[in-house]
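ok here's the first one, seq then struct tokens
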Amino acid sequence: MGKINKEESGWMVALSWLSALEEAARDFHGTRPKVFCQRAYDHSVQHYLKMLGDEYGLQVEKADTIRSAVEHYIQIGVIGGLFQDESEFELVSVNPHRLDITIHHCEYLKSCQCLIDEGFAIRDLTCARIGCFRAAVKVLANLDCDYEVRSFNINGDCQGTIERI
């Protein structure tokens, strides 16, 4: 039996905690734990950005639009090792108040597929990626937004929307 490398192990721990958090949210909030998860994503983004700044001296630029906030978060996420490459994401500005996002080869697809297999609808998915992008908009642009998952594809892509409230 081979030893699991530290990077892979870190992702396994992160996915385990995320899955546990979302399962606990469903335990207490039924099929619609979005408000709870949204708050967790807010805290996660705040902690992540603070750690990057405090421990590595990385500061992320403030933004004035939904799109620029998400772009800045993706850029710092690539530098910080959260994302492999900016090409993992497609951003389409529908209007100044709405951003459509496609996530290619999402790390969390297995978690979402398990929920779909259990009978949950796409609208029930909380989506850590899009949820954290919404949280980044809140932190970096000081804009209150909502998000939703619009489509899910086990072959690797999911899509969602971040929209100003």
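and now the second one, same deal
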Amino acid sequence: MKLMRIILLTSFLTLAFVSAITYTACKKDACNNVVCHNMGTCDGGKCTCPVGYEGPSCDTLSRDKFVFTYNGGDTCGASFLYTQYSIHLLAIPTKPLELMMKDFLNNPDDSAICTIRSVDSFTFQGANNSTTYTGWGKLRNDSLWMTYSVEHDTTSYVCSYFGQSLRAL
């Protein structure tokens, strides 16, 4: 009887040990119940979103947080003269990675196409008659920061713009 107990106890302990090893060795798929939209991919249970999308499921357009009117101004070239004006950033409904910038350079005829590069930045370019401009912008909280180059005929200069969205004021 004693021998039977030892055999049963040994068998039970062996089975428990093998089960514990098997259970802990199984790799659980952290992405099993995670759904990532807009071609996002799951990594370690979290979505990695493509450029232009953000959020836990990649279902938020990054550009939407840029769509506002910004009150501010710019300084251009070596003059450090400050020109105050508003810029309007508008969504382009058919292009989730693009925005339209209106009233650029304090001119209602100047506009630029902005392309989202990350969750908080974009590049842009535009032209009006003999003026061309290219640059980049960054959104931090409700503040818009931009640096850009302007070429007008044979003159070129670099400008910096800072503005705050109307929702922040």
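notes on #2: The two ends are 86 Å apart (CA to CA). The chain has one helix and twelve strands.
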